[in-house]
Specification:
Order of helices and strands of chain B: HHHHHHHHHH
Structural class of chain B: mainly alpha
Order of helices and strands of chain A: EEEHEEHEHHHEHEHEEHH
Number of helices of chain A: 9
Largest sheet of chain A: 6 strands, mixed
Oligomer: heterodimer
Largest interface: A-B, 33 and 25 residues
Largest sheet of chain B: none
Strand order of the largest sheet of chain A: 6-7-8-3-9-10
Number of domains of chain B: 1
CATH class of chain B: Mainly Alpha
Distance between the termini of chain B: 54 Å
Distance between the termini of chain A: 32 Å
Number of strands of chain B: 0
Helix content of chain A: 25-40%
Structural class of chain A: alpha/beta
Strand content of chain B: under 5%
Number of helices of chain B: 10
């Protein structure tokens, strides 16, 4: 298997608080990994360490052989290969949907305006929002905004997509449309790391599930194993609370 | 009847006689204000960014602290913590002669310095003092504006691979600018009015013109009421312009 992400002994300290206490994991190309766990378990921090949005306190993260937290790494070049989708969408409110998507391809990749707009149009079609091309983010529903955010990340043609609780800020009836887009991506072979509370999605789409608690990977395995035959008592307790 | 009474009390002929003086004063006031708004905004942006400068790794981390954050913080504190009037006097009578001095100016000396000081001394000092003062206030507007932008905006931009400066240029500043327009407008209005203080060092702007006329006739209502009206009209115009700008840059704003 072609390994794209390799995490070794990753720790993260916020002052006195140890959020990550030594995480090891490897993620292969085209793999879909869901990260679950109680709030405060360090899931989001772990994800944010993968593209260097959060600085590691110790340990290493390698993405396609490049050390993320090495101070000589060109972190901008690295991030342009790693798409990220946030809980709160974080669309640029002063730009139209089209400009939100075209901004990074034009500025970072140097794509011509026409080419960037064409790519944006294709991606909007993919996420089912072709009619919203000239809208501003505040004119869209949460689910629509999150689909635009996914299109925006995809416009950089990333090798890896990170999702940080992408449906947690959505009204229940909008969760499905976002998960649908993510499932399509997974089926197309995108490498994905998804922090989520959607156990149904994890079970159905993930190749592997990591259960984090108190800054450690307590248990990992295929969705069938982890959800149906959890080995650890801690995992069983968590699952009985959320399922 | 009323009109005659009015003009009997208000000697409009004085204003007419000195119309050119007021006109030149007005031009000088506008010139100084415009120059100081432009320079003060540029300086304010630079100082505001310097106050926010942070880096993760040595030696850039220390550089940001000692070479950028500390000096800019002291600068802002000084210029906001002392009277503009005193700053003008200090710069005109103490600082400027250091740099432009016929005998031993650090920047210019000799005959050129003599001419420069005589003809443009008050202008240079006034513009410098007002710019430095405005820069301090405007830097706080920039700093607050930039800090008011949600961290998620910066993270989204950086996660797409945009560098810090591109993130500032494309994502943070356009949003911050919109929020900064009202306080920037207030600042421009304050600057216009504060420019009258430069008359104290002999710059022939509006307030100076009024003082000249008042001195010549020992009449005070006419010249000071006249320039008050002129200042008022200009501030009204500025306020209107700011409002137009706000409307124009309000696109996509959450209402």
């Amino acid at each position: 298997m072609d390994e794209v992400i390799r995490v070794k002994g990753l720790t993260k300290q916020f002052g006195e608080l140890a959020v990550l206490r030594g995480i090891d994991c490897a993620i292969a190309a085209s793999e879909v990994v869901c990260v679950i766990g109680p709030s405060g378990s360090g899931k989001s921090t772990f994800l944010r360490c993968l593209n260097g949005l959060e600085e590691a306190s110790g340990g290493t993260v390698h993405v396609r052989g490049v050390s993320v937290h090495d101070q000589h790494t060109d972190v901008d070049a690295l991030r342009s290969e790693i798409g990220m989708v946030f809980q709160r969408f974080n669309l640029f409110p002063h730009k139209t949907v089209l400009d939100n998507i075209a901004l990074a391809p034009m500025t970072v990749r140097g794509l011509a305006r026409d080419a960037a707009h064409e790519r944006a149009r294709q991606l909007l079609q993919k996420v089912g929002l072709s009619d919203k091309i000239d809208a501003y983010p505040n004119q869209l529903s949460g689910g629509q905004q999150q689909r635009v955010a996914i299109a925006r990340a995809l416009a950089m043609q990333p090798q890896i997509m990170l999702f940080d609780e992408p449906t947690s800020a959505l009204d229940p009836e909008m969760v499905g449309e976002v998960l649908g887009v993510m499932q399509t991506l997974a089926e197309e072979g995108m490498t994905m790391v998804v922090v989520t509370h959607e156990m149904g999605f994890a079970r159905q789409v993930a190749d592997r599930v990591l259960f984090l608690d108190e800054g450690l990977v307590v248990e990992e395995g295929s969705p069938a194993d982890l959800f149906d035959r959890p080995r650890e008592e801690r995992t069983r307790r968590f699952l009985s609370n959320v399922l | 009847m009323e009109a005659i009474l009015w003009f009997g009390w208000f000697r409009a002929d004085i204003i007419v006689e000195y119309a050119m003086l007021f006109w030149h004063g007005l031009q000088m006031t506008v010139t100084v204000t415009v120059i100081c708004i432009v320079q003060g905004t540029a300086l304010g942006l630079a100082i505001g960014l310097a106050r926010l400068a942070e880096a993760r790794h040595a030696p850039a981390r220390q550089l940001c602290q000692y070479a950028l954050r500390w000096p800019s913080t002291i600068y802002v504190s000084f210029f906001r913590g002392t009277p503009l009037f005193v700053q003008i006097l200090l710069i005109h009578f103490a600082v400027l002669p250091l740099f432009i001095n016929p005998s031993d100016g650090l920047l210019v000396s000799g005959e050129l310095a003599r001419n420069l000081k005589q003809n443009y001394g008050a202008f240079l000092s006034g513009v410098l003092a007002l710019t430095l003062n405005a820069g301090a206030y405007i830097s706080e507007i920039f700093r607050a504006g930039i800090q008011s932008i949600d961290r998620g905006q910066i993270e989204a931009s950086r996660s797409l691979g945009l560098s810090f400066s591109r993130t500032m240029y494309h994502v943070v500043l356009p949003q911050a600018f919109r929020r900064m327009l009202p306080p920037l407008g207030n600042n421009a209005i304050a600057l216009l009015k504060d420019s009258s203080l430069i008359s104290a060092i002999g710059l022939a702007e509006l307030a100076y013109a009024a003082r000249t006329v008042a001195g010549a006739y020992s009449r005070y209502w006419e010249p000071y009421l006249t320039i008050s009206l002129m200042y008022w009209l200009m501030t009204l115009g500025l306020a209107y312009g700011i409002k137009k700008l706000e409307a124009r840059y309000g696109r996509g704003d959450t209402r």
